[in-house]
UniProtKB/TrEMBL annotation:
Involved in targeting and insertion of nascent membrane proteins into the cytoplasmic membrane. Acts as a receptor for the complex formed by the signal recognition particle (SRP) and the ribosome-nascent chain (RNC). Interaction with SRP-RNC leads to the transfer of the RNC complex to the Sec translocase for insertion into the membrane, the hydrolysis of GTP by both Ffh and FtsY, and the dissociation of the SRP-FtsY complex into the individual components. GO terms for cellular component: cytoplasm; plasma membrane. Residues 282-295 form the SRP54-type proteins GTP-binding domain. This is Signal recognition particle receptor FtsY. One of its GO terms (biological process) is SRP-dependent cotranslational protein targeting to membrane. GTP binds at residues 115-122, 197-201, 261-264. It is a peripheral membrane protein. Part of the signal recognition particle protein translocation system, which is composed of SRP and FtsY. SRP is a ribonucleoprotein composed of Ffh and a 4.5S RNA molecule.
Length: 312
């Protein structure tokens, strides 16, 4: 069979979620294939869903859906998986949105990346830069984490690989000043997209938030609508700590979309559900590996099906 782009994409998603889907299949699905759906089984379902980090609210609703379904003694694995996928998709569909900097009509379209160090911000920005330049866009990458030379270097490598312009300053320069100058040049030189990486040191939370807000303020001096997107990058492997990070950034940084990275590195990919539901911002992208193609648009239905181990 030829590998269409669609199936290739779904295969990557499924491979990335393999650890989570294995956990789901081993616990939840096997419970119902072996025995009828009685109260004891529903209790075990609740336990397993909580262990998969789906969170109490979504878990409660999913258990109720299963109670209403009344599987007979002979329900097979496929039937259980389909029902579970539908239940998880129903939780996530209202929390899905697309990231489309080239389709907005805004030029240059400014994207701010926020999140703690190590969450995958730089990698995500680099993957997006590669995708946009491959589609013919003129892209500028801005390293507004001016304190860490290593962070700048890493970003520079991504920018060069993508064929994007790169803007940075010496150690300790004002990140807001850099963002202002970069945006000004991007306007003058007709760039399509400006991608701004920011610092993520949470040790000094209020200074970090002040720095982010200052960047937002100066961008608005040039264009009151900027930044046109603020993506909060969260690492799925930190589990429910991602919820705390969402609260810290979500409250102050005007986040407009979430990116959940490293879903391939955890068996508890279900954590995406409570994070999506706690946030005012929808999930726009997910990372299921280190390759450029492993950053994918978030598709709630496909995610739910992969999470429970369905193959299409
Ligand atoms: N397996 C896997 N690794 C990822 C994914 N996204 C990012 N990474 C890796 O996670 C590590 C941290 O990513 P960075 O992009 O450096 O994180 P950052 O938030 O920019 O952190 P600093 O550079 O410390 O500010 C890198 O080794 C990435 O290759 C993903 O979806 N899956």
């Amino acid at each position: 069979m030829t590998d269409t782009p669609k199936t290739g994409w779904f295969k990557r998603l499924s491979a990335g979620l393999a650890r989570s889907s294995q956990q789901m299949t081993e616990t939840v699905v096997s419970t119902f294939v072996k025995e009828p759906l009685d109260e004891a089984a529903l209790e075990r379902l609740e336990e397993h869903l909580l262990e998969s980090d789906l969170g109490p609210a979504a878990t409660g609703r999913i258990v109720e859906r299963f109670r209403a379904l009344r599987f007979g003694k002979t329900s097979d694995a496929r039937e259980v998986k389909e029902a579970l996928a539908d239940a998880v998709a129903a939780e996530l569909l209202p929390r899905q949105a697309s990231f489309d900097p080239l389709g907005s009509g805004i030029k240059p379209f400014v994207v701010l990346f926020v999140g703690v160090n190590g969450s995958g911000k730089t990698t995500t920005l680099g993957k997006i830069a590669s995708d946009l330049t491959a589609r013919g866009a003129k892209v500028m990458v801005v390293a507004a984490d001016t304190f860490r030379a290593a962070a700048r270097e890493q970003l520079k490598v991504w920018a060069e690989r993508a064929g994007a312009d790169f803007e940075s300053r010496r150690d300790g320069a004002d990140p807001a000043g850099l963002a202002f100058d970069a945006f000004t040049r991007a306007r003058a030189e007709n760039f399509d997209v400006v991608l701004i990486d920011t610092a993520g040191r949470l040790q000094n939370k209020s200074a970090l938030m002040d720095e982010l807000l200052k960047i937002v303020r100066v961008l608005k001096k040039i264009d009151p609508e900027a930044p046109h997107e603020t993506l909060l990058v969260l690492d799925a492997t930190v589990g429910r700590n991602a919820l705390a990070q969402e609260q810290i950034f979500g409250r102050t940084a005007y986040v407009s979309g979430l990116v959940m990275t490293k879903l391939d590195g955890t068996a508890r990919g279900g954590v995406l559900v409570p994070v999506a539901q706690a946030s005012d911002a929808p999930i726009k992208l997910i990372g299921v590996g280190e390759g450029v193609e492993d950053l994918q648009p978030f598709d709630a239905r496909a995610f739910a099906r992969s999470l429970v181990g369905l193959e299409d």
